[in-house]
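Task 17 of the worksheet. Students: predict the tertiary structure of the chain below and write it out as structure tokens. Keep your answer in the requested format; marks are given for formatting as well as content.
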Amino acid sequence: MCKLLILSFGFQLLFCVFNTAQNLASQVLDDLGFGSMGFYSLGVLYFAFSFSCFVATPIVNKCGERFAMTIGALCYTLYTGCFILASAPQKFPDQADSLWVFNEGLIRAIILITAAINGFGASILWVAQGRYLARIANDSNKGTFNSIFWAFFMSSQIIGALFAAIVLQNTDAFTFYCIMTSICLLASLFFLFLQPVEPEAAEVVEDGDYQS
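Model answer:
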């Protein structure tokens, strides 16, 4: 149960940030002068997510569930962090024309690249989550464990929306995404606190032999 609560809280914290960034992406980027980049970035993200699922399992096998979830969550952090760069020219208008990093074409490219990285990270994050949850549960409690995990996960929509409503009323987009990226980074490192769960080395079959 302790492992389950750490896993569930980590996902709740991570997706409080990501769901909010995803829900606001189209409107925020349009307001910042990037037009439909929010729609394009989400399209790239889920396209990469779909195809990365085919290679996610070998990566999780190599890294282990804890590190795979950490790497996957850090990919979410990169996508959330790109909104800091997108909002920086509006926050610092005096430097918008002098700094190369504020170039609009460069920012558009970074948004799409980090979206693709996020999609890749999402694939290994969810594969690792499913395997870790399956290992800490058994036949008698797997339904309960899945219910608890999804209760935490779905509550992130509510918490994230309320948090965004409160913060955005009192600050600008640049500060808001600095806060959200920091929380996302914290959630990424949170998965390192999960204890490893080793697969069963062997299982007993009915005739008394051992099957690897």
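Marker's comment: The beta strands are 203-204, 210-211. The chain has six helices and two strands.
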